[in-house]
Design a protein that fits this description.
Number of helices: 3
Distance between the termini: 80 Å
Helix content: 55-70%
Number of strands: 0
Order of helices and strands: HHH
Shape: elongated
Structural class: mainly alpha
Radius of gyration: 22 Å
Length: about 120
């Protein structure tokens, strides 16, 4: 039974490392922040989860703690990627050769002819 655990750990390490390497290649090779977020957010989450599974099978760790960690990784990874991409979009970082932009009509921009609101002067 111990050998089966090590075999599962080795397979999980190989697949997790493969996913992590693909995420790193995507981070380096893709053209803009949105594509890079897709590569690192999706692929690397699965890589880290599989490496955690390998750690559970290879070492005497508590399985319940590992399940909680895996659940948090699966929940937090896409949320963080979305938050970073949303912040990039709001900052106006352009997309490289975008096919369409569904949020373009919903972007809130102040009118060009409207002056900035005046700040209240402190009373003396």
């Amino acid at each position: 039974m111990k050998d089966l655990g090590y075999l599962i750990a080795i397979v999980a390490i190989l697949i997790g490392t493969f996913f992590s390497i693909i995420g790193i290649i995507g981070l380096v090779r893709l053209p803009d922040v949105y594509s890079r977020m897709h590569a690192t957010g999706k692929v690397s989450t699965f890589g880290v989860v599989l490496l955690t599974v390998a750690a559970v099978f290879a070492t005497p760790l508590a399985g319940s703690k590992a399940l909680v960690l895996i659940a948090l990784l699966i929940l937090a990874g896409p949320v963080v990627s979305h938050a970073i991409s949303s912040a990039s979009y709001r900052l106006g970082i352009p997309m490289k050769s975008a096919a369409r932009d569904d949020l373009a009509g919903k972007r809130i921009q102040p009118p060009a002819n409207q002056a900035q609101p005046a700040r209240a002067e402190p009373a003396e």
